[in-house]
Amino acid sequence: MIEVEGLTKRYGEKMAVNQLTFAVRPGIVTGFLGPNGAGKSTTMRMMLGLDRPTAGDVRIDGQHYDRLKDPLTYIGALLDAKAMHGGRSAFNHLLCLAQSNGIPRGRVHEVLDTVGLTAVAKKKAKGFSLGMGQRLGIAGALLGDPRILMFDEPVNGLDPEGIHWIRNLMKSLAAQGRTVFVSSHLMSEMALTADHLVVIGQGRLLADTSMADFIRENSRSYVRIRSPQRELLLDVLHRAGIVVVETGGGTLEVDGHRPEDIGELAAQHRIVLHELSPQQASLEEAFMQLTAESVEYHAHSGAPLGAAPPPLPGDRPGPPTPGPQVPGPQWGDDWKKG
Amino acid sequence: MSTPQPQTHQQAAPAPNWQSAPGTSYTSPIPVTRTHLGHALTSEWTKIKSVRSTMWTLGVFLLLVVGIGLLVAAQTNDNDYADVPYTIPAFFGLILGQICLITLGVLVVSSEYGTGMIRTTFTASPQRHRVLTAKLLIFFVVAFVVSALAIGFVGLVTSGMHGGASDNEWGGTVLKGALYVSLLGVLALAVGSMLRHSAGAITAMLGLVLVPAILPAFLMMSESLRTVGDKMMDYNAPNALAKIFEIDSENGGGTSQLVLLIGVTAAAIAGAYVLLERRDV
Q1: Which of A124, A306, B11, B98 is most buried when burial is the number of CB atoms within 10 A of its CB?
Q2: Residue B111 belongs to a domain
Q3: Do A85 and B53 touch (CB under 8 A)?
Q4: Which residues of A touch B33 (CB under 8 A)?
Q5: Phi, psi dihedrals of residue B140, rounded to the nearest 5°
Q6: Checking DSSP bridges between strand A221-226 and strand A244-247, what pairing results, if any?
Q7: Does B55 contact A at CB distance below 8 Å?
Q8: Chain B nearest-CA residue for A165
Q9: Between chains, do B46 and A96 touch, taking CB under 8 Å as contact?
C-alpha cells in the first residue's frame, strides 16, 4: 500500500508535481499514466525518497521511505534500465545490492534465473542490450522479494517478446497479493496490464479510477451494424426513433442503444444482419481526450511555431476565433469535434 | 534481439489468478533483516573490487611507488641514507602516485552519479549517510593498506640494499606517508560526492594539490603576498610529503601538514554529508 498525499514538487517557477493525492492498493496492477513530462518519474522518485517533495507526503505501509529498515524487501523499483555501473558484471551488480540489505547471496542466482540472465551473469552490464538491461533492472527490483513493486516505463524499447514477458510478470506479481505500480505513457499498454488507473497531466491528478470506469467515462460507446438490407434497416430504425449515423463502407453506427434492442428490432422485421457489435472508442482516444489540455510538448502541424499558446488547464478550448490571429489547428481537435 | 533465448520463458510465478482478492498483502519467505552499517560496508567492498578502475588506479599507484622507489634505491649509495629514512625512495613515486589515489577516491562516488547507479544505491539504502560512511571507510582502509604496503616494501628493499648506513627509525614514515596520501584520496571522495562529476572533481583535486606548489613562485614576487606564499610553500601536498619523509631533515616531520590535511578533509566530509541529505538524486 502506497499513500501519496498532497505531493508537490516545484523546480523554480515550474510545478512538476502539483498536489497529488492517491493510493496504490495491493493485489492489483495500478497504472500510472500521463503524457511525457507530466511528472510521472518525479513522483516515483519522491515515492522512493530520492527527491525531496516541496510539500506533501508519501507513506509506504504507513512509513516514510527513509525509515524503512529493510527497503528492498518492502519495495523493488525499476527506475531506468541503465541505473547501474556498466563496468560491473550483472552478478556483482545484484550482489552489492543484496549485501546492502542483508539478502542471501543465493537469491541473486534466483532472480538472475527468473529474468533469464543466468548465461550472462558474469558479463559486464555495459555490453547489455536495452532489453537485457531492463531485465537486469527488474532482477534488482525482485531481489528482496518485495511486497511493493514500482516500474517506470518498463516496456520502453523492448521487443514484443520482452513486452509480453513483462506484462505477464506484472500480472502474476499482483496476483500474488503484491502492490504493483507501473508508469507508462502508452494507454494501450496499460489497457492490457492495469486494473486501476492513476492519470496525471502537468503534475495534476486527472483521474484515479478503475480501468473499466475510466473506459466507460472517457470513451464513446456505440453499436456498429452492417446489413445487406440497409435501406430497410434504416427505415425500421428511423421509425423506432433511433438515430443512425452512416459511416463509410456500408456500416451504420448507433449511439446510446444496446445491441440487444437493435438485434431484436431487426429480427422482428426479418432483417439480415452481417454485423452487430458493441464498439468503444479506443483507450488511446480516451486518454488523449483526458490529457489533451495538459500535454506539454505539442507537435503543431502546419501552424507557425508559438502561434497558439498552450491552453491553460481547466480552460475549455473554444472554437477558433476568426480574425487576424487565428490559431492553427490544435492537437486533438479532430476527436473533440467528433 | 540479443536476449539469451533458452531462459526467456522461465517464470517461477504460479498460474496467474487475476481475480484473487485485492487487499491481501504479499508476505515474502525471505527473512527480513534490519540493515546496518555492516551491510553497507560489505556492499561497498563488493562495489570497489568489482570495477576495473580500482585495479587500474591501484595498479598504476603500485607501479609508480615501487617502480620509481626501486630505481631510486638502485641509483643511491649507502652514504645517502646517513641522515634520512630508508623509505625516501618511495617519496618520488608517491608524488605521482597520489594522483592515482585521488582519481580512485573521486571515482568511488562520482562513477555512481555518472552511471545513474546512485539512484539504485539510494533506493536500496535510503539512509544516505550510511552509504557515504561505508564508502569513506572502505576507501580509506584500501588506500591506507595499499600505500603502507608499497612504502613499507620500498623501505625494506632499500634497507636491505643499503643496510647499516643509518639507524634511522623509518616505520613512522610508512604510517605517516600512507596516512597522508590516503587522506588526500578521502578528501577527493568527499569532493567527488559534493561535485558529483568525475572530471570536475578530479580537476578540482589536482588544482588543490598542484596550484599551491606552483603559485608561491609568483606570490614571492610581491612583498605583500610573501607571507601567503611562504605558507603555501610550507603546506602544499608535495612539500608535506617531503617533510614526512624528512628530506630536508628539518624537525616536525610533517605533523602540522598532516593536521592541516585532516582538518580540510574533515570539513569536506562534513560538507559532503550536509549536501548529501539535502539534494535530490
Answers
A1: B98
A2: yes
A3: no
A4: 70, 73, 101-103
A5: -60, -45
A6: unpaired
A7: no
A8: B9
A9: yes
Residues of chain A with Cβ-Cβ distance to B8 below 8 Å are: 116, 161, 165
Asked, for residue B230, whether it belongs to a domain, the answer is yes
User: The domain A221-280 is classified under which CATH number: 3.30.70.940, 3.30.9.10, 3.30.70.1510, 3.40.50.300?
Assistant: 3.30.70.1510
Q: Provide the pLDDT for residue B99.
A: 95
Look up the domain containing B162 and give its range: 37-278
Total number of domains in chain B: 1
**Measured between alpha carbons, how far is A54 from A18 in angstroms, rounded to an integer?**
10
Its sign, for the CA torsion A41, A42, A48, A50, is: positive
pLDDT for A222-269, tens place per residue? 889 999 988 899 999 999 888 888 887 788 888 888 889 899 999 999
Domain spanning A2-217: CATH 3.20.10.10: no
Q: Tell me whether residue B97 is in a domain.
A: yes
Task: Report pLDDT for A329.
Answer: 46
ipTM of the complex: 0.85
pLDDT at B1: 42
Q: What is the pLDDT of residue A89?
A: 95
Decide: residue B214, CB within 10 A, 0-12 exposed, 13-18 middle, 19+ buried: exposed
A49 with B126: Cβ contact below 8 A: yes
Using CB atoms, which residue from A49, A73, A173 is nearest to B30? A73
Q: What pLDDT score was predicted for residue A317? A: 42
pLDDT band of A335, cuts 50, 70, 90 = very low
Q: Which residue of A has its CA nearest to B16?
A: A172
* Residue closest to B246 by CA, chosen among B181, B183, B168: B168
With an 8 Å Cβ cutoff, is B277 touching chain A?
A: no
Q: Which of A89, A204, A180 is nearest to A136 (CA)?
A: A89
Compute the nearest-CA separation of B15 from chain A (Å).
7
pLDDT band, residue A300 (cuts 50/70/90): low
Q: Best residue in B1, B3, B28, B35 to probe A by mutation, most A CBs within 10 Å?
A: B3
Q: Which of B7, B26, B278 sits opposite A26 (nearest CB)?
A: B26
Grid cell of A113 as nine digits: 534465473
Mean pLDDT by 10 residues, chain B (281 residues): 41 39 63 88 96 95 96 90 87 94 96 93 93 97 97 93 74 93 97 96 94 88 86 89 80 84 97 95 86
The whole-angstrom separation of Cα A44 and Cα A32 is 10
Q: For chain A, where do the domains classified as CATH 3.30.70.1510 start and end?
A: 221-280
Cβ–Cβ below 8 Å for B26 and A176: yes
Domain-embedded: residue B24:
no
